[in-house]
Amino acid sequence: MAFIRRVENFVCENCNTEVEGNGYTDHCPNCLYSKHVDINPGDRLCDCKGLMKPISVEYKKQKYRIHYVCTKCGYKHIVDANKNDSFDALLSLQNS
Asked: How high is the pLDDT of residue 1?
């Protein structure tokens, strides 16, 4: 299934930051938490709806990649960090 671009604003369920989506926004730039809503990127078909906790970060090919685990079902996922993400939050995960 192809990626579905959705421009959606949301309030982070972890830190209450109001996030303005751009169609590619999939996590909070403040605390880096996400939500388990997709089976395939953008489809919003996942029934879990658990919070995706950032558990570590790697720096690979000149970009940061955030590793997640769902706090409800245990699903693991990796996404690229965004330029607007908190650098302090990313660095705090590097020591995880």
From this structure: 61
Residue 28 counted as domain residue: yes
3-state per-residue secondary structure call for the chain: CCCCCCCCCEECCCCCCEECCCCCCCCCCCCCCEECCCCCCCCCCCCCCCEEEEEEEEEECCEEEEEEEECCCCCEEEEECCCCCCHHHHHHHHCC
Give me the number of domains the chain comprises. Answer: 1
Which pair of structure tokens corresponds to residue 7?
Answer: 């421009």
Range of the domain at 72: 10-94
Instruction: Give residue-wise pLDDT tens across range 17-74.
Output: 999 999 889 999 999 999 999 988 888 999 999 999 999 999 989 999 999 999 999 9
In a domain, 2, yes or no: no
pTM of the model: 0.91
Q: Which amino acid is at 83?
A: K
